[in-house]
Amino acid sequence: MSTTTAPAPRRARPQTVLEVLETAWLSPHLVRVVAGGDGFAAFTTNEHTDKYVKIYFAKPELGLEPPYDLAALRETLAPEDLPVTRTYTVRWVDEAAQRLAIDFVVHGDEGLAGPWAARAKPGDRIVFSGPGGGYAPDPAADWHLLAGDDSALPAIAAALEAMPRDAVGHAVLEVGTEADRLPLEAPTGVEVTWVLRGDAPAGTTTLLPDAVADLPWREGRVHVFAHGEREAMKALRRVFAERGVPRADLSLSGYWAYGRAEDRFQAEKREPVGQIFED
């Protein structure tokens, strides 16, 4: 006789509940939300420069109180009424002051997180789990290559700040216009290139992979961080393969996909269309 053991229930991720302390527009399409408060004691940072959190957005009309008991809510709410998650990079953490910053790309009323951040005011609550992360600049690399669009700008900015001051390499950033460029604290040996797409919607051009392909390729081992729109990342994967960059030296993934809502984009990560790497 055989017995079947039911799988253990998935352990709920701890949630951090903070209050918005202040907001600031960094550019016409990027707003910073600084949050802190008593809930910061529950937050444990990590060494990754691409550290990210999964933010929970609940329907205000339901009056749900954080932290959310997601298992219980799944038993009582319709799927469309459950809190929705969105993944965002933590731009910086100030443990002494017990506060952190998250930068949000805003395109009018498009999406969920951007409009929330644009309207956020002191006292509003932000609920998230994490942080996760997977990249920090390798000080042993001969040079560094960072590439991304608006969505990767916070992680790239954090990586540049964390690099040794004698680091060398390239950072290629795609944004809309000159007004979307930000001051960056990069080592003097890291050349920063801004690629402007103008009126073209984000995710509809090959400007970013083309700019990376045109870079002068340095000698030695390169450590790559490239994130942004999914199809652009697939194109960059081919560029790096042609250059012989080992996969172990690549941090490469799509943060979003043109024409896809976040939930569909996340679901497609398990499908061939959503795979950046072919194997």
UniProtKB/TrEMBL annotation:
InterPro entries: FAD-bd_FR_type, FNR_nucleotide-bd, Riboflavin_synthase-like_b-brl, SIP_FAD-bd, SIP_fam, SIP_rossman_dom. It comes from the Bacteria. Residues 10-138 form the FAD-binding FR-type domain. One of its GO terms (molecular function) is oxidoreductase activity. PANTHER family: FERRIC REDUCTASE, NADPH-DEPENDENT (PTHR30157), NADPH-DEPENDENT FERRIC-CHELATE REDUCTASE (PTHR30157:SF0). This is FAD-binding FR-type domain-containing protein. It comes from Cellulosimicrobium cellulans F16. The lineage of its organism: Bacteria, Bacillati, Actinomycetota, Actinomycetes, Micrococcales.
